[in-house]
């Protein structure tokens, strides 16, 4: 458990003899503070954490990292210069005044990671990071005490917070690593020191910020480049994605390929989807072959299962342990099936959207029985791939759906592409926003309909689900 002594050593480089003060966890939201916590006051675009230091102390926080003196707080230890030899630790709760509270958080996490004897598995990619992280953690939990990144805490704030949750009892940490700009993953790796790096795929999401798929691939490859050399380091790479497979030449680590290609170390075939019941496939590894069923939705989920299996094999788990872990996947799905009063089934996949994930969702919809309806919203942050990505989704929708509802200005491209591919105008509805889409659907859904709802998080298409549950 992190102590005040650890924090001061991390920030000052001095190992001081102090009374034991243990910190229960670290938090940046005063509403989530628990007794004994370290509260980090960050300045954000919308608010300033320094305004909530007093509230964090009321909830039991022992310490607060601050870069400004918070209103109403008197107990402050100034760490912006040298600590005098005769300094006194204030009575908790108190503030540690530093030049930059975010950099201090990162510095403490970097220090703490190096004190722990633990293996870190870093996961990145354009699509499937979070689902992969959850399933890898479920597999590793079968043998090792494992911590995973909560939610999507995968950036320069979330990753350090996750590392500060680690204690001496943990044996593995599975950390998601996000990417927006070059150098970001390299920075996260400098804090986390991953031993194993896993890359899911390289898509077009975030191309608006990164610039191109090539730039995205370079950014994701920073994880592979940061790994220690073999035998300590292992890069788990998707052989089916050429952007990912070529990363093998960039690492000193051992390379473990997975995919549907029989030349991979671990590969699968005979993939069959049973709709919402999961998937079945045959696994091949060395001379071994086994057929398994897992509760993951859609044929594309075989790659998620392969990633988690690969992590288990690299970490020495038995097939029994790996399969037990894979069967926990039904608790980690983002897609949720909801029944409406009319009897229609809504596949709620509103967490986010990219061309790759939307095509995968349409593949799932194709395997469902009943009238197939796709409500597809704008896909954001595609940059130069915006038109191409929406057109690709429209072409696939024309092959799958009985009715397409396109939501938003960008989604108009989906509608136009679907019509050019043969979907009749009577089978296509275009609306400006979620409210209009909800209205269009309210009186149309009936028993036997299967409705896929998917779009970028910025559209808040999740609001549609709640209304349709009640109204239809």
How would you describe the overall organization of this protein?
- There is one protein chain.
- This protein has three domains: 4-103, Udp-n-acetylmuramoylalanyl-d-glutamate--2,6- Diaminopimelate Ligase, Chain: A, domain 1; 116-331, 3-Layer(aba) Sandwich (UDP-N-acetylmuramoyl-L-alanine:D-glutamate ligase); 336-471, Mur ligase, C-terminal domain (Protein-Tyrosine Phosphatase, Chain A, Alpha-Beta Complex), CATH 3.90.190.
- It is 33% helix and 20% strand.
- The chain contains 16 helices and 20 strands.
- Strands 7-8-6-9-10-11-12-13-14 form a nine-stranded mixed sheet, with helices on both faces. It has a six-stranded mixed sheet with strand order 15-16-20-17-18-19, sandwiched between helices. Strands 1-2-3-5-4 form a five-stranded parallel sheet.
- The N and C termini lie far apart (51 Å).
- The model has no long low-confidence stretch (mean pLDDT 91).
Q: Choose one word for the global shape.
A: globular
Low-confidence stretches: none
Oligomeric organization of the protein chains: single chain
Provide the CATH topology of the largest domain: UDP-N-acetylmuramoyl-L-alanine:D-glutamate ligase
CATH class of the largest domain: Alpha Beta
Tally of domains: 3
Computed over alpha carbons, the radius of gyration is: 24 Å
- Helical content band: 25-40%
Note the gap between the termini: 51 Å
Brief overview, please?
The protein has 472 residues and is of the alpha/beta class. Helix content is 33%, strand content 20%. Helix 4 packs across helix 10 (302-314), helix 6 runs parallel beside helix 8 (213-225) and helix 12 runs parallel beside helix 13.
